[in-house]
């Protein structure tokens, strides 16, 4: 029975970890803490050699050979994880200066022209606004009246009184207009006035004066082809986008989107102007306003490198009239004239009068309209060849001369009537809807 008990005790002891080889854990810890001795080659941590073992039995080659299968696998895995953690900590904490080099970045160095561009954008962005055009629509099913976004564009702060300048086509047909400032504050806007012929409109918002930063106004009379320009706007709803380019051409001519009347002396630029840029400012390298972005030449509707801006010298006079009177008083002759191509096909040069209503300035002065006789044959009306001694070859020439006149001025109109010329004095009057 004693033998049985001894045998049972032996079986129990054999399944328990022997206490003798525990010193290997201290060896691992010391090896992890101690740096390699000078001149010695670095090598991975290792257990003592079996030949150095003080024990009478052979040293086990693996840690888990000392323990039962399950316990050995667990302890071996834990020990391996401990070694990896210690090594990782040594790499991370061993050289703090080296780790910091990856965190602290060297300050970015910008070129002088880049710094100037960044400064220009930062100084002028608060002056640029985002304009949303809302129109009233009735739901076809519920018959509810809804405000639907009809379009969007750009504009800029003109003065501390809250006047905002933009294009007329940006707000055309709007029942409600909202202006978003650079700090994302939104204000309802009222229309002060607009000039359809030049595609200019003035709005007004009731915002705090400290939030209203008027844009610096420059001049456009001395611009040169090749000088740098900058456009800030909200293309495709992307607020406060900066594009750069140069002046590609001067004294271009485009037609008003609303009336078809030509706009003269327009600035051409290759700065990217896309839908949503309309009404935004075109700036020179000093950050001064030189034009209002209004149109692009593109078959696809996106930027093609040919954009147009109304010169600030033209815009300034219009804005002043709109703020003061709510309208622009522009003189007219009171005629309808044939397209330039039709006159060219007739082999003539000048402006062919199609209609001169008796109640208009030209009709009162005696200019004759185009008509048909009793047999249906076309009888050409007067052909205007000059005004105040300035030659007129097409409609653009006539508009350019009238833009330099005032309501109430008397101009001398030279016409070709049949085979002879006549000079007729005409007193200019305002457009009926602007009187």
UniProtKB/TrEMBL annotation:
The keyword rRNA-binding does not apply. The keyword Plastid applies. Keywords: Chloroplast, Hydrolase, Plastid, Protease, Serine protease, Transit peptide. It comes from the Eukaryota. Transmembrane segments: none annotated. Pfam families: PDZ_2, Trypsin_2. One of its GO terms (molecular function) is serine-type peptidase activity. GO terms for biological process: photosystem II repair; proteolysis. Residues 322-419 form the PDZ domain. Its main location: plastid. CDD domains: cpPDZ_AtDEGP1-like. It is found in: Plastid, Chloroplast. One of its GO terms (cellular component) is chloroplast thylakoid. Belongs to the peptidase S1C family. This is PDZ domain-containing protein. It comes from Zizania palustris (Northern wild rice).
